[in-house]
Design goal:
Chain lengths: 418, 418
């Protein structure tokens, strides 16, 4: 089956935003085994949008549109798609109630424009929006399917996963099953070299790698008549990856993030963590607190961006900063070993570095030290990141989580085997 | 004049890469005053590529293609475009020499495939590639212009700026200038209602709104013969927006973020800030530290996710948490008024709330209190956010920055007029 992706939005045509929806939907279609030959971006213009939908209907089975479901006059994707299919719109009371409830929760009243979002093309399947006001819809039309999704990724992605994937799966012959193996501490090139033989000989399952900041995800995808048959094809490949990458694999579950894996490890080890952050400025703590229910193991976090804060809150000695500077192995070490101000933690992780934008001889941009203390056992590592200030901070945050994982695993392996 | 952008590459159709070339070229076209109604992505397939070029020629004056100029058999953009225009290819000796020189510099020999890159459609303008081997070309065709650029951004962008911009400028009448007005504390619907008259009567300049988490950006765009004439058209509209939204406008500079505006305000006011975060877990601190050179005004940050940390680090009374819970106006207030552990700050902002995923009667998901203390003057606000855990935390982070801005402005206006 062939899918075509149409992203609707003048802001994409003006280049004000990068079309990440297109990439997400393309990857999702590929994951479902749908072919994708064209992606089109078009503005909020009825004539051109209508033409794009008609063209897509002439060459694809499933047309996926994102954007243009908002409350304003500009937003006309739903109206245009309905017109192309010769369907009229009706007010769906349940969607209307959802919108009113959404606003009520915020202590606000919806405007008439917002209620417009509850207008649904006849015969369409309604996709609930749990993260915004615009419901999505799927219009079945002459053996084809037009899927309309909201533009904001935070609304579009969960809606696609919760409602569109199950809908499309039913249309597809056989099943496609994927499993993701998430690897940290191994770069993409090195990883690909290490599995070149597997990639070269792939047919079913296929193997694809996706580089993320500080990690690489390896997706193993099999096509088969049933889910259990597909899983049987996937299993030996995943086992082979486990053999090759060992502890560098932090999960084989698509839904488990690095921070979730770290929190799970800390919980299982009954260790509680505190963070002391300079250049990352709270990003490590924030990643850990992404995980719901982390309060049992997250003791507290300190953002010690200034030298004074490093001294007062983390107990770094003035002489250490003077002698070695704030970005040094010694300072990082003291950041995890000073007298603690907060509730006592078993694990302390600290980050100090130069995130730029300045890059000078004395303050080389991208130089970062990360220290981790697990029950008194301290490790400090030096990193050289590149990219923008934001990118360097993100890389440092990921590596801090990777280092915590590594140090906790080391601590227990030494306790057991040392 | 109308431009159409065609990005060529199977890796985009598979979602393996995000199409940043599309965004770059769209922005560049908008900057040149070219209208852009369609962006198309197509794979390295002769038939579909040919169809896409023909369609683009039927509706645009300038067709810009990126990708498919590489040395491999897959790469057929140049051959296909030449075929559509009925032009044959010849070996351009100068391009061939450039390719040989490029390889020589790297201590390598070019393959025959690389020499293929020196084949140029008859009558085309050759665009030198200073960052790779594939030259770009512009094929003039029936009063239209087909621009072929390499796919890697590192080659494409400099080539566009060095060679394509001067070529296109000669074809164009006048310039396009945009200015962005960034508004906080006003939702998109309300904002649009307030400027409906301006939007309805727009011709030149045009007005477009873009909703972001907790803010709305209004872009005013004018077309004129010269930049100063365009600016003259923009100015009265921006002034009208300033009149209508007053202090809710935090900047009229596209490059200034909310956190930058807050840091600028604190610096100008000579106020130093500390953060005390529960559900946002370091995100407010992290946003502030996005701004380079913030160490002069950022004193320190505390992540007090557990009740114990709230008591020990922020001085919240045990009885307050017991009586009112950790997510309450009273707790938020104490989080910004307790004895400070770190270096003394003038401004303290605190966030406490339920980010979910659980949503219970006693812990309603999305309920957040944000408190701000400016030199002893304290304000606490109650918020009801919706969406995922991450979305709620992002919304709370933005509103915390907005509240800091509001409280600092209040403090000075009361000092001046109170």
């Amino acid at each position: 089956m062939v899918a075509e992706i149409i992203c609707v939005g003048t802001e994409i045509l003006l280049g004000n935003i990068v079309n990440t929806n297109g990439a997400y939907l393309a990857r999702a279609c590929a994951g479902l085994g749908l072919s994708n030959f064209y992606q089109v971006t078009v503005g909020d213009n009825e004539e051109r949008l209508s033409e794009s939908i008609k063209t897509a209907l002439s060459r694809a089975d499933i047309i996926i549109l994102s954007g243009g479901l908002g409350p304003t006059e500009d937003d006309l994707t739903k109206e245009t798609a309905a017109k192309v299919c010769g369907k009229s719109l009706y007010l769906d009371e349940e969607s209307k109630e959802s919108i009113i409830a959404y606003f009520k929760k915020k202590g606000k009243e919806p405007t008439e424009n917002n209620i417009k979002q509850a207008m649904i093309p006849e015969g369409a399947v309604i996709l609930k929006n749990n993260n915004g006001t615009a419901p999505g819809v799927i219009i079945p039309y002459e053996n084809k399917h037009i899927v309309l999704l909201p533009g904001p990724p935070i609304e579009m992605i969960p809606m696609f996963e919760e409602s569109v994937v199950p809908y499309l799966r039913k249309l597809l012959p056989g099943v496609i099953v994927s499993q993701t193996v998430k690897v940290c501490s191994v770069g993409e090139s090195l990883l690909e070299t290490k599995i070149k033989d597997l990639i070269d000989s792939q047919t079913n399952p296929t193997i694809a790698t996706y580089a993320k900041t500080g990690e690489v995800h390896v997706r193993v995808t099999a096509q088969a008549a049933t889910e259990s048959e597909a899983n049987k094809l996937i299993k030996p490949v995943v086992n082979e990856l486990k053999l090759r990458f060992g502890n560098n694999i932090y999960t084989t579950d698509e839904n488990v993030t690095l921070e979730q894996a770290v929190v799970d490890l800390l919980e299982a080890s009954e260790l509680r963590i505190s963070t002391v952050e300079s250049c990352t400025g709270g990003m490590v703590a924030s990643r850990l607190i992404n995980v719901a229910g982390v309060s049992d193991i997250f003791k507290c976090g300190f953002v010690t961006y200034s030298n004074k804060a490093k001294r007062k809150l983390a107990g770094v000695k003035k002489s250490t900063i003077e002698k070695y500077t704030a970005v040094s192995e010694q300072t990082a070490k003291e950041m995890v070993s000073g007298p603690e101000l907060g509730p006592k933690a078993d694990v302390i992780v600290a980050v100090t570095g130069y995130a730029g934008p300045a890059d000078t001889e004395t303050e080389p941009k991208g130089l970062v030290y990360i220290a981790c203390n697990v029950c008194g056992q301290i490790k400090v590592k030096e990193y050289h990141f590149s990219g923008s200030r934001q990118k360097i901070r993100e890389s440092a945050t990921t590596e801090a989580l990777v280092l915590v994982r590594e140090c906790v695993l080391d601590y227990f392996s030494e306790k057991t085997f040392g």
